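Design job #97: recover the sequence.
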């Protein structure tokens, strides 16, 4: 595992229940400017192995990147943690964003 990957994983694991962060913000907090795509790759390949709360990561505009079934699962998981998600998959980042 690279140092960048480790830092991304640490940032994802630090997001508390009931909060969300963006792919970009996770990368920035991990010290990787322009690393949003790397965050996506880590989530895609390592979420299960490291039990990452993948559902807490959304786009910086507050929208869910997944579609169809993936979006439905993510909305259900976020709502179960108290995050309000609109029917079209948007989250109020000012209220639910985690900017530690």
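Job complete. Output follows.
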């Amino acid at each position: 595992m690279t140092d960048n990957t480790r830092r991304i994983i640490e940032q994802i694991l630090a997001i508390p229940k009931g909060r969300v962060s963006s792919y970009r913000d996770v990368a920035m907090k991990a010290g990787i400017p322009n690393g949003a795509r790397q965050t996506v790759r880590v989530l895609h390949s390592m979420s299960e192995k490291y039990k990452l709360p993948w559902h807490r990561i959304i786009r910086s505009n507050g929208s869910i990147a997944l579609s169809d079934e993936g979006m439905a699962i993510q909305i259900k998981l976020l709502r179960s943690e108290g995050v309000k998600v609109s029917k079209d998959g948007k989250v109020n980042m000012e209220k639910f964003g985690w900017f530690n």
